[in-house]
Sequence to fold (544 residues):
Amino acid sequence: MAGKITVHDPRGYPPKVTGKRLANRPESLDGKVLYLIDCLFDNADVFMEQMRLWFAEHMPSVTTRIIRPRESWVDDPEMRAKVVAEGDVAIIGVGL
Amino acid sequence: MGFALALEQAGVPTVPVSTHVFARLAKATALTAGMPTVRSVFVPQPVVGRTASELRAYIEGTDPVLKQPFMKGVLDGLTQPLNDEDLKGATFERSTPRLLEPDTEDNLRQLFIENGWTDYLPIILPTEERVEQMLKGTSLAGDRIVGRMRPTSFREFWEFDIEKVAVNAVMAGARPDYLPIILACAASGISARSSSTTSWATISVVNGPIRNEIGMNSGVGALGPYNLANATIGRAYSLVSQNVQGGSVPGDTYMGTLGNNWNYTACFAEAEERSPWSPFHVDNGFKPTDSTVSMFFGGWYTMSGFGPRETWKEKFIRCLLGTDHYSPPLIVMDPIVARAFVDLGFTKQSLIEWCAENARMPARNYWDDQWVTTLVRPHAVAGVEPYASRLKAAPDDLINIFTPNDIKIVVMGGETQGAFKMLSGRFSTRGPGTENKNNPTGLIDVWR
Fold:
């Protein structure tokens, strides 16, 4: 041990990570309701509108609805509840 | 990402879209949320400033991370059956030992550098003896939990105790009698190492008797490297932040594109005795005999000037309009400047109100800002004032860009010159936003 010293670890304490499963996937999107979630970052609205147009042109059987949370970076339980209640699948984006 | 994970848990297949520079961050966030196989897709950076047709080209183009058509990733992500990994997620525990394996000083220094535990300036190694000595700076037990911190609002919180703060204080070269201030900074829960792309720092201002008890500098060079307490308290808070929140590693837990020199150290003391006005902490409800530290999230810009001279109004307006207005200004002024404003008939509050009243710009310019658009516009759309009125204004209408509550004034400096600075500094507790809110002044005395 000569010449060796003991020092503290400077890091904090991370939380335990608990595994969570993904949601079951539909076999196809035909007839499904797709929520396009505009996360409110600058220009995300333009991106989501282009996503909506892409689906309208290429997969018209998919019903698309654009939705926004009430604030950036802040959870919006009401919006999530609406997507869960009325939607089948979702796409969310996009920042910077 | 947080929305996507929550929706998956609620049974809604969800694909999050990020720009390619956030690929590592997206992967790390999904892993620590227990859902490492979340089906992320990527478009090129940037999205900001791109036209509708350019964004359509992103959608019809190639995912720069997955190296496949972007829409294939989207459609597969929403419809491909789940595999075993998707079904079980990832469960794991991480631990941080109290002590590291014994080694030579040279090897331990190298270990701290390789692990990203320093700011790449020399550190004092936190031996058991040094940490024990540091803990004498407080009467509280080392295992008492101080709080939680994270580099950004969508990352996981890490927890930390007094001993962990003391360890980082030793590394920074602080003295034990500085520890209560460092603890108060850390207890705010505001990180001095935000991972935001905007390269924020957190500036802390100390008020009350402790400034003189430990010999902080509020005189000549008050904002500079001329005092052990100022320098090491700010550095300790920064090291605490990066280490107790789970890191500050570029591309993973740090995304600031330019970086920020205030991240090394940014702790200052108000020159209460030489200010013509009440101390900052007294303005915010504390007693003059309280020792406090106030947190200002910003450090993004600095405007400087002298005066007040004959044309000070024009100068102040130029400075206020030159700010990036999503981050309100903390005005730091030498006592000479403060006293001169008193001679002109101003109180601190009336000067703040003058600044808010006269900092006006065309609505077009105000809204042509990515963070005002991202953070303020949703409130304006929801009808929250004063943002709603700013949104209703015609593009050429002049609108007030700050409210009086946004602007703060602190007095310090050595009276070698009548100088002032306007520093980006949102006086606010933890969390996203652009306006000053709540009261992020913490009492140091409870950590003695």
